[in-house]
Amino acid sequence: MRTLRPALPLTALLAASALALTACAGEDAPSAAGSSAGTAAASQTLSIDFATYNPLSLVIKDQGWLEEELSDDGVTVEWVQSAGSNKANEALRSGAIDVGSTAGSAALLNRANGAPIKTIVVANQPEWSALLTGPDSDITSIEQLEGRSVAATKGTDPYFFLIQALEGAGVEPSSVTVQNLQHADGRAALENGSVDAWAGLDPIMAAAEANGARFVHRDPDLNSYSVVNATEDFLTESPETAQVVADTYERARRWAVENPEETARILAEVAGLEESVATQVIAERTNLDISPVPGKDQRRVLSAIGPIFVDTGDVPDQEQVDEALETLFDPTFAEKAESK
Asked: What percentage of the chain exceeds 70 in pLDDT?
């Protein structure tokens, strides 16, 4: 578990070493350490992720707002990059991070499988997932994916987008070979012809589109929301810091709404994109004009996705999914942030 972990400063460690050395010299040796180790102020660390699929996390990191807000409290900010919702979920489960960015669907899956996490902020409403083929592919419809291979990252929105799209078109998901590849690897597999199609994720998807990839199917309603989650231990032990995180995300959301060009520039720089591609992601596929409070809108979307977890064998039964959905959201932090 890694939540606001106390860490002895260097002076305390040196003092402790001196104490050990004097003890070795004999029982009557004076204590060089004195009481400095006991009186030294303990520092703390907030471990939080950033991800190209969560532009607000990039803005916060770029602007240094968390460091600015937490420095007086002796809290150090540790940034960890997440390559996908599945990776953020792994880090949250293991306690490697306190706060992580995922799709709403991935957050629900994580909690349904026993991870003690809560969704505390809604970052945006994206159209970040779609199905793509290569520029020379003969595939023009979902129905033509039957018997073909599709790259997707299991446990993430693009994977659940794929399953929903197949079922909506009357195609049995079992008739499609899913290559479980991380998002960037899925793009590479599409471009080198290793798979017939790819369930993509922005901004990698936008870059692939700019490079000639074609959409087979788009449907904003099959995308879940971009959310920010925290471990229950972190929320219980450090609620003040959790509130700072929520406040800073709301600050970033408002800033991004007012500064879309600068937001796109930051995304382009971190993701290695052309600014025109990043601008497309921010301007056309990222709805930031929403409430940050998790609630009925997210519940509605997730209630439709939840049964897929059972169908695909990712969760043993629907009861676990329903219980997870009932307990996933903690809106109190975002409510306070929104009211400021």
From this structure: 87
